[in-house]
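Before going further, learn to read the protein records used in this course. The integers have meaning only within a learned vocabulary of local backbone shapes. To see the layout at work, look at the sequence and tokens printed below.
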Amino acid sequence: MPRLALDTQQAADIAAYFSPALEAERTFTARGGNAARGRELMEQKACSSCHAFSEVPEFSSTDAAPVGSELARSAALAPDLRFTRQRFRRDRLLEWLVDPRAVKPDTRMPNFGLSDADADARDIAAYILGAEVAPEPGARRSRACPCSRAGCRSTR
């Protein structure tokens, strides 16, 4: 990328142009939330009906949507929540959980009736952003393969 002779204000103006509108006031807290309760809420709301959350303990409510249904078409578009922490800031995730269509008008994600003052949204965000996940699939391992074969030193 080329280095441009920009002053601080010019750089800020360019960043503002290419960035989503930055709200002057945030109504969501950037801290808090009970991750354990967030997982329970995700089970109650059947988030795993649409979303995968790879490398975390499996959810008990993993009923598949009927083939060809609107829910099945929506589920095909739902991202793996494992990668949410790389795609969303916490405050933006809270905005998404409270009103997905305000963030992305054409989303298929339903509104679950959470409010910005609601601890439920903070709890769900705490779990999504804080759940311990295994290393990414295909990531290099620095130790021997856990396959339990005698003498195996594979790093697959």
Summary: The two ends are 35 Å apart (CA to CA). The CA atoms of residues 43 and 61 lie 6 Å apart.
